[in-house]
Amino acid sequence: MMRLSAVSPRSFVFSALCMTLFCTAAGAAPAKTDDDDPNVNARGTGVNRLLETLRYSPDSASESCLHALGEMHKMQKQLDDVEGRDNDSDTNLVRDVLASDMEDVITMCGADAHRLCREKADTDDKLSKLCAGLPGDPADDPG
Length: 143
Description:
Blueprint: H1 9-23, H2 25-28, H3 38-55, H4 63-83, H5 88-120, H6 125-132
């Protein structure tokens, strides 16, 4: 006979958050790739590749990944708000924080995306193609 176990409220909320983040409006907001700063654009492209891979299996995103994404989206909004102003120092500061937040997303979500690829890419052609577009897996580094 099959035993059913209760799903913890925390697990349920986390799964719901993952689905919301990757399958609705929050997930539809890609990382910025049209900024005046080419470093922000390059990081944004990397973030978007990771997110595209994680959308394949939203439950693969860790809490640290989701938190990093939330912080990045806050900074993107703040950058949009300050770019129209005349104070370049505010814009540069927000841009620097955004670039740092993007690095956090690349680190946190990158680990999740690479783990997903190691575990499931050989079972699905679509996922395999997404995984091929990711930057190198830090787990492959010898040091």
